[in-house]
């Protein structure tokens, strides 16, 4: 649910960033949020997620409006301003993380998750908060849809109609910053830009309608979050099953290692007195050619014995 909600809000807001030709905006803001996380930890001394995200929000907003100020007050183009803010803030953030790591009573464990993301740290309250923010964002989009649309495609015309284009621009930028900050815990600084832009870029290939593009981007983002999480869970389940088989083989090896001939009837009887397995696990081991099953009796193959010996030696080295 958390990754689906995050993907949908990022897809919706990313559509505006893509169409405004600010593809680097998500990258710049996500990197700009890093020093805010570090400073929040240095000030409070806590790794409470909400506190760190508040620091990220303040830093992200500062970076976003600094970008607007550079574009407005200098001759630099938007891509130059975005790259400048990205490099300055991210470099400062990494400097602070290095400093935190060297503190005697504090390390950056728990802060690293904001670099690469860790969806497993999401709590139910985090998902509810994401859902509330997404709902608010959707309501604002519907209320100011015409204003957002005209600003997006013809800002000068919107200004002649009397719209406060600066306020509307600030509103869009602020919501993009909020979406990015929400995703830092789950996706991380490094991949947040892809989460914001990839669904919107994909949706743009299918339609020329802004409304359809926003809906498609939200769908693509939500689907990507769910599918990615599902694949990760499948890998986790498969790794756990493999670990169970390896543990079974290691136990078999402990029983069989005292016999020179592991296929000797005496060794086979000892092995069959071991009940740390299931029929399903025996079937998997037989398909891998690690054991032979004849009737109700089974025995280890040389291939299985050598594989188990390697596992056993690895466990011994880890214990040492």
Structure keywords:
2 strands; 2 domains; Arc Repressor Mutant, subunit A; ABC transporter involved in vitamin B12 uptake, BtuC; mainly alpha; 14 helices; two-stranded antiparallel ribbon; 320 residues
Output the strand order for the largest sheet. 1-2
Number of domains: 2
Low-confidence stretches: none
Beta content: under 5%
- Top-tier CATH class of the largest domain: Mainly Alpha
CATH-defined superfamily of the largest domain: ABC transporter involved in vitamin B12 uptake, BtuC
- Sheet with most strands: 2 strands, antiparallel
Could you tell me the radius of gyration in angstroms? 28 Å
Question: In one word, what is the shape?
Answer: elongated
Q: What's the β-strand tally?
A: 2
Mean pLDDT: 78
Helical/strand content category: mainly alpha
- Total helical elements: 14
CATH topology of the largest domain: ABC transporter involved in vitamin B12 uptake, BtuC
Fraction of residues in H or I helices: over 70%
The end-to-end span amounts to: 42 Å
CATH architecture of the largest domain: Orthogonal Bundle
Taken in chain order, the helices and strands follow as HHHHHHHHHHHHHEEH
């Amino acid at each position: 649910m958390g990754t689906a909600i995050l993907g949908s809000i990022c897809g919706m807001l990313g559509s505006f960033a893509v169409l405004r030709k600010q593809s680097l905006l998500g990258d710049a803001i996500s990197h700009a949020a890093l020093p805010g996380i570090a400073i929040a930890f240095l000030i409070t001394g806590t790794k409470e997620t909400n506190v760190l995200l508040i620091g990220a929000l303040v830093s992200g907003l500062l970076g976003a409006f600094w970008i607007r100020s550079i574009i407005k007050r200098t001759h630099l183009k938007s891509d130059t301003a975005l790259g400048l803010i990205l490099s300055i803030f991210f470099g400062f953030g990494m400097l602070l993380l290095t400093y935190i790591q060297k503190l005697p009573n504090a390390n950056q464990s728990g802060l690293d998750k904001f670099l690469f993301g860790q969806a497993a740290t999401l709590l139910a309250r985090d998902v509810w908060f994401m859902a509330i923010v997404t709902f608010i964002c959707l309501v604002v989009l519907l209320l100011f849809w015409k204003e957002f649309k005209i600003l997006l495609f013809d800002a000068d015309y919107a200004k002649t109609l009397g719209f406060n284009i600066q306020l509307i621009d600030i509103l869009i930028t602020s919501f993009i910053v909020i979406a990015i900050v929400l995703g830092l815990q789950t996706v991380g600084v490094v991949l947040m830009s892809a989460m914001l832009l990839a669904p919107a870029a994909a949706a743009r290939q299918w339609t020329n309608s802004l409304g359809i593009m926003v809906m498609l981007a939200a769908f693509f983002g939500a689907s990507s979050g769910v599918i990615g999480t599902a694949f990760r869970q499948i890998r986790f389940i498969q790794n756990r099953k493999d670990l169970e088989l390896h543990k079974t083989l290691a136990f078999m090896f402990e029983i069989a290692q005292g016999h020179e001939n592991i296929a000797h009837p005496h060794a086979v009887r000892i092995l069959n007195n071991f009940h740390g397995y299931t029929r399903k696990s025996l079937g998997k081991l037989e398909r891998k050619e690690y054991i032979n099953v004849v009737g109700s009796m089974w025995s280890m193959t040389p291939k299985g014995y050598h594989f188990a010996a390697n596992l056993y030696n690895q466990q011994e080295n880890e214990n040492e």
